[in-house]
Amino acid sequence: MEKENSVVNEMCYRDLFNELLEGFALHEIVCDEEGRPINYRFIHVNPAFEKMVGLQNDNVKDKLVLDVLPNTEKFWIDTYGHVALTGEPIVFEHFAKEQGKYFQVTSFSPKKGQFVALFEDITDRKEAEEKLKNALIETQKVNEMMVGREMKMIELKNIIKEQEIKIKELEEKLLSK
Q1: pTM exceeds 0.85
Q2: Which of 23, 34, 102, 111 could form a disulfide with 119 if both were Cys (CB 3.0 to 4.6 A apart)?
C-alpha cells in the first residue's frame, strides 16, 4: 500500500509539474575558486519553461547556461547565485535580453548550491504599463499647456479690462472739457 501511495504521489507531482502555467527550472550554481557564482547548470525544466524561453529540457539538461545562452546577463547569475548559496528566496522582475522578454521570477533554494526559478512572462503587462506611463506624460503635457493658455487668457482679459477702464476715463475727460 505504501509503494502504491508513493507511485500515486509521484504521478500527481509529475502532472502538477507538467501542467504548471509558470515556467519551472531547477538549476545548480557553478562557482569559481573563490566561491563566486560564474555560471549555472540546467537540471530540469517544465513544458511551460520550454514554451516561454524556447529551450527544450532534452537540449539543456546538464548544460551550462552560458553554453546554451551565451549572452546571459551577469544579473541572472549573481541573483541566482545568492539564492543558491544563502538560501534566501527572492521575487523580482527583470528584462531578459536574450529572450527579449520581461519575466517575474520567484526563486528559492531547495538545497544548498541549487535553486528553483519559477517564471511568468510579463512582457505584455510591462509594455502596457509603458504605454500607460507615456500616455500619462502626454496628458500632463497637454494639461500644463492648457493651464498655461488659460492663465494667459485670464491675463489678457485683465489687460483688456484695464484698457477699457482707461478708455472710459479718457472719454470722460474729453467729454467734460
Answers
A1: no
A2: 23
